[in-house]
Design brief:
This protein is mainly α. 70% of the residues lie in helices and 0% in strands. Helix 6 packs across helix 12 and helix 7 packs parallel to helix 9.
Length: 441
């Protein structure tokens, strides 16, 4: 009789996986950073989202090949370990993913506070911190999530973006706004440099597709349906984002859009003044809060997992006796994200999220090429070699100062990774102290 553990139930088909991928991509980025991207590029901000989509597409091809080759619940850290076999590098990748969740949640808290102003004029920082404390309480209590619930959340997020596109199209048809403005660039740079700088920031809006690899063991026939779901979801998000950015800059003056904390609400305000703006604010707040909760849960569970694997001090692996939640990891990650939200704005934190994940994605693209020397017996999707190569180069370029990335983003990322290295060193020292001296015994 087999002693093997029972496998996870394969209940996710093509349509369900497509909606899961789309739901993971939609969220804070487009609601929070459209104005910042427009402020960087000018009216042609939609081009920056298009370039970001192309970079994301190259990396998505690498993820699809890896999940088809190794159809288990996995992620960037495990792919890095398989390819390079360097535990410290694997740890850095895992901690960078965790840190990106915190910077993303910090950006979401600031965006939430901005849209909240339509309902009540309270200090932005106060609302952002209260929002994070509520999420921490939910996280401590424990949340049971399902893919079917994700569909409902996705529909709400999607509805908000479709309202913006519909409002924009009808407004332009009535003569409101100027479509020509969406073809203009800022005067302080070349079109190429401006679009690349904008794409380095806009990339934040297109991350999330990589989370779908964690559903591999619960998906029917992963090698067959993952390519369609990931590429389809990413393409749908990319087209929708470009349309949102186009109508946003066509309807709202760039300086207003760039300074606003309610980016997409400004589009509705100009294009459909009779639309209940409070309702749209609620939709936007719901979208960013869903993203923030998922990211904070991911970050705390990653810290808990690192502690349980004896990679960082074991105290971070403590579980609450009643709630069965990793309370120390939750408190630790909540403290970090509160510090981030107190110090940085949406642009700083969103840009840092993109920076951290671009570094991770560069390694994933490289891992695909390395792992091709180790073929597997079953058939799976194989990305054209040009895509992972372009993925390595484009991700590395967008993560570099050459893309016009702001120095503050490197400082934030460096501080977070420094905390990770410090935890690694402390754990190593604890083990070294516990080990008997050479020659003893």
């Amino acid at each position: 009789m087999s002693k093997e553990r029972p496998a996870l139930r394969r209940a996710i088909g093509p349509k369900l996986l497509l909606l899961f991928v789309l739901g993971d991509i939609l969220g804070t980025g487009i609601y929070a950073l459209t104005g910042d991207v427009a402020g960087t590029v000018g009216g042609a901000a939609w081009l920056a989202f298009g370039v970001a989509f192309l970079v994301a597409f190259c990396t998505a091809a690498s993820y699809v090949e890896l999940v088809g080759k190794y159809p288990q619940a996995a992620g960037a850290a495990l792919y890095t370990q398989r390819a390079f076999g360097r535990p410290f590098l694997t740890f850095l990748v895992a901690f960078a993913v965790m840190a990106s969740g915190l910077t993303s949640a910090g950006a979401a808290s600031r965006s939430f506070a901005g849209y909240f102003q339509e309902l009540a004029a309270l200090p932005v920082l106060l609302v952002a911190l209260a929002f994070l404390l509520v999420l921490a309480a939910v996280n401590l209590r424990g949340v049971a999530e399902s893919v079917k619930l994700n569909i409902v959340l996705t529909c709400v997020e999607l509805a908000g973006l479709l309202i913006v596109v519909g409002t924009g199209a009808l407004a332009l048809a009535r003569g409101v706004g100027d479509a020509g403005r969406a073809l203009e660039f800022n005067a302080d740079g070349t079109p190429f440099g401006l679009v690349v700088s904008g794409a380095a920031l806009a990339f934040f809006a297109l991350v999330g597709f990589e989370d779908s690899v964690n559903m591999a063991e619960e998906t029917t026939d992963p090698p067959r349906i993952f390519p369609r779901a990931v590429f389809g979801g990413l393409a749908a998000a990319g087209v929708l984002y470009m349309a949102v950015a186009f109508f946003a800059t066509a309807l709202v003056p760039i300086d207003v859009l760039a300074e606003s904390d309610q980016d997409l609400l400004e589009v509705v305000r100009v294009g459909a003044p009779s639309f209940p703006l409070g309702l749209f604010s609620l939709i936007a707040m719901f979208a960013v809060s869903n993203s923030a909760l998922i990211n904070m849960m991911m970050a705390s569970r990653l810290v808990y997992g690192l502690a349980r694997e004896d990679i960082i001090p074991p105290a971070f692996g403590a579980v609450h006796a009643g709630r069965r939640t990793p309370w120390v990891a939750i408190l630790f990650t909540t403290a970090l994200v509160i510090a981030l939200a107190s110090w940085g704005g949406v642009r700083d934190l969103g840009g840092t999220t993109a920076l951290l994940l671009l570094c991770v994605f560069a390694l994933v693209n490289l891992a695909v090429l390395v792992l091709r020397r180790r073929p597997v017996a079953h058939a799976h999707y194989r990305a054209p070699t040009a895509l992972p190569l372009l993925g390595v180069v484009s991700c590395a370029y967008l993560a570099s100062p050459l893309a016009g990335r702001e120095p503050r983003q490197y400082w934030i990322a460096g501080a977070l990774m420094g905390i990770g290295v410090a935890l690694w060193v402390v754990n190593w020292a604890l083990h070294a102290k516990a080990r008997p001296p050479r020659g003893a015994g």
